[in-house]
Design a protein that fits this description.
By secondary structure, the protein is an alpha/beta fold. It is 36% helix and 24% strand. It contains 8 helices and 16 strands. Helix 2 packs across helix 3 (69-93).
Length: 266
């Protein structure tokens, strides 16, 4: 089993120089450890802002962005140009060896259309982790933008939480950590007494089936479940509103945030 740590971060952490610096500091600390580190990022807020600026009204179905032909161009511009390339440049300036890639590179995320209602939103049917393994073997951190492509070269928007889950599973990662803008998972959002510190796969499945999870959290949980079902050892949701605490939350005993485990991993 791989000892890799897969860290999924949302676009919120790239919105300010202060948060980016804090995230880079945390990554620098994690990179001092022997385990490989793989970062997967989205860019939802930035995509929505650019779309609105050019007259596209963002629309979501079951927590996923409806992506027409014009929107997939916006997604590509934001993920690759506004987030991935500048952030990789900042990492390397901080002496953290990193390479920016996306799921279309070397067939990393081999995708097909997920649902006609969603347009160019992809479902990953297969992964080719050769490029990830090659980079980590050289001590280089992959920074993965959540795009994919089909066998004809058509580009798809891949939900970053789902992509991170599938990648963590394929790598048999030690842990997938989803960095969010909330403390973790609640049975009733805003009610601290309903906070979930630990839950099994079956408990999360029951909450999803009962419709007890807010739509924006659904893909995140689905990604964590995919990771666990397909080979990752652990899954965790941590609060990224103060990025300087990410490492503290990961290392705490027990880990902070919400941890999801297999039924036999209590």
């Amino acid at each position: 089993m791989s000892s890799a740590l897969v860290l999924k971060v949302g676009g919120e952490l790239f919105d300010s120089a202060e948060k980016r610096r804090a995230l880079i500091t945390q990554i620098g600390q994690l990179r001092k450890r022997p385990e490989p580190l793989v970062l997967v990022h989205g860019g939802g807020p930035q995509i929505s802002r650019l779309a609105e600026k050019i007259g596209i009204t963002p629309r979501f179905v079951r927590g996923q962005r409806v992506t027409d032909a014009e929107t997939i161009r916006v997604v590509s511009m934001v993920l690759l140009g506004e987030i991935n390339a500048p952030f990789v440049a900042e990492l390397n300036a901080a002496k953290i060896a990193a390479v920016g890639i996306n799921g279309a590179d070397v067939g990393l995320f081999q995708a097909v259309a997920a649902d006609p209602e969603l347009g160019f939103v992809g479902r990953v049917e297969a992964l080719n982790c050769t490029i990830i393994n090659s980079l980590t073997a050289q001590g280089i951190m992959p920074v993965v933008a959540s795009l994919g492509a089909d066998m004809h070269g058509v580009l798809y928007n891949i939900n970053a939480d789902i992509a991170a889950g599938q990648l963590a599973g394929a790598l048999k990662a030690r842990r997938l950590v989803a960095v969010t803008n909330v403390k973790g998972l609640y049975r009733q959002f805003g009610n601290e007494e309903s906070f979930i510190q630990r839950a099994s796969i079956s408990e999360i499945e029951s909450l999803l089936a009962a419709g007890a999870i807010a739509s924006g959290m659904i893909p995140k949980l689905e990604g964590l479940l995919i990771a666990l079902r397909s080979g990752a050892a652990e899954a965790q949701i941590v609060d990224g509103r103060d990025p300087s605490t990410i490492l503290e939350q990961i290392d705490a005993t027990p880990p902070l945030g919400t941890v999801i485990y297999r039924s036999d991993d209590r």
